[in-house]
Amino acid sequence: MAMRVSVPDASWLDSLNDLGLGLDLLVWDTQGPQPDGDLDLVVWPYTLDPSAMASVDTSRVGVIQGQSLGFDGVAENLPAGGVFCNAIGVHEESTAELAVTLALASARRLDVFADQQSRGEWVKTFTSSLIDKRVLLLGIGGIGGEIVKRLDGFGCELIRVGTSARDDERGHVHATSELPQLLPRADVVIVAVPLTEQTTGLIDDDFLGALPDDAIVVNVARGKVADTDAVLRALPRIRFASDVFDPEPLPDDHPLWAAKNVIITPHVGGMTSAMRPRIEKVVHRQVRALAAGEEPINVAVRT
After folding, report:
1. Number of helices followed by number of strands (H, E) in the chain
2. Whose CA is closest to 137, among 149, 126, 152, 147?
3. What average pLDDT does the structure give for the chain?
4. Residues 287, 281: Cα–Cα separation, whole Å
5. Mean pLDDT throughout 210-237?
6. Ordered strands of the 4-7 beta sheet
7. What is the dihedral angle through the alpha carbons of 139, 144, 149, 154, rounded to the nearest 10 degrees?
8. How far is Cα 161 from Cα 165, in angstroms, rounded to an integer?
9. Fewer Cβ atoms within 10 A, N terminus or C terminus of the chain?
10. Which residues, at least 6 apart from 252, have a Cβ–Cβ distance to it below 8 Å?
11. In 3D, which of 59, 55, 46, 63 has the Cα closest to residue 5?
12. In 140-291, where do the E strands start and end?
């Protein structure tokens, strides 16, 4: 019997038909009623909140393939018996690219120059640079590893921080327990940690208070990694450039919009031209694995 696969929109149909596996394909955006019968694989919409998974009848679904790297909220919402796979290898490079972009934009004061442009003002000023600066990278997983690659050649001193101290092929990794000693010497801090109980609220008053004046904090992790009120209290003494926020999306009247020394991007780290080809490859690999009777790839949550 042919594998039955649902996709979030019709643009996926040709891509999966090209596999030549004789799949039984149907479009289900997961917003309407679940299709009758069993589904071997459900390709979940990219930007849909995990709370929508609460209505999935997992007894009739084999595997849910997400299009995001993160999976916070899935375990809390996916009914018992569900299997959720995340999109490893899809967003790491693009998110790393944005992390470096935010660091450079904040250092070179593109926020100030954009404001001047909107007023038609030509005002020259010296800015910071990544050259000769000490950059603290928190998180050395997939995204962190790609950030390391992209910082090569920028002339900065890179200090990596992981859960525990260790040495690898790139040198020494400091432990998070060393942050009180590391933060006062950091010019730039890039945060790319997963959201866990330990990292929730990591960027708090103590964290920010330990930084020197005019330090740059870049957050491409998750919004809840930063205590938003603590960030507001630290501004404008430090600079904050972030792609993720708590709450998210930011309300229209949120004080961060008008705060000085802030650059905001609306959680678009993975939303580039590179995403679609990469997520299609992941889905293709998943389909082939399931068709061969193998275990699903990239299992992140089993409920």
Report:
1. 9, 14
2. 147
3. 97
4. 10
5. 98
6. 24-27, 4-7, 39-43, 61-65, 83-85, 299-302
7. -60
8. 8
9. N
10. none
11. 63
12. 157-162, 166-168, 171-175, 188-191, 216-219, 239-242, 262-264
Between CA 27 and CA 302 the distance in angstroms is 24
Residue 197 CA: distances (Å) to CA of 108, 194, 211:
34, 10, 23
According to the model, what pLDDT value does residue 47 have? 87
Neighbours of 52 (CB within 10 A): 14
Neighbours of 218 (CB within 10 A): 29
Summarised one tens digit per residue, pLDDT across range 96-125 is 999 999 999 999 999 999 999 999 999 999
pLDDT at 160 over 80: yes
Phi and psi dihedrals of 114, rounded to 5?
Answer: -65, -40
Helix (H) or strand (E) holding 80: none
Q: How far apart are CA 63 and CA 247, in angstroms?
A: 30
Q: pLDDT digit string (tens) for 5-23?
A: 999 999 999 999 999 999 9
Separation CA 162–CA 173 (nearest Å) = 6
User: How far apart are alpha carbons 195 and 219 in whole angstroms?
Assistant: 12
- Quickly list H helices, the chain: 13-17, 74-77, 92-107, 110-118, 142-151, 179-182, 205-209, 228-234, 275-291
Q: What percentage of residues in the chain have a pLDDT greater than 70?
A: 100
Q: What is the pTM of this model?
A: 0.94
End-to-end C-alpha distance for the chain, whole angstroms: 27
Q: What is the pLDDT of residues 119-152, one digit of tens each?
A: 999 999 999 999 999 999 999 999 999 999 999 9
Burial tier of 181 (Cβ tally within 10 Å: 0-12, 13-18, 19+): exposed
* Structure tokens belonging to residue 281: 């490859």
Residue given tokens 């299009």 in the structure block = 67
1, pLDDT greater than 80: no
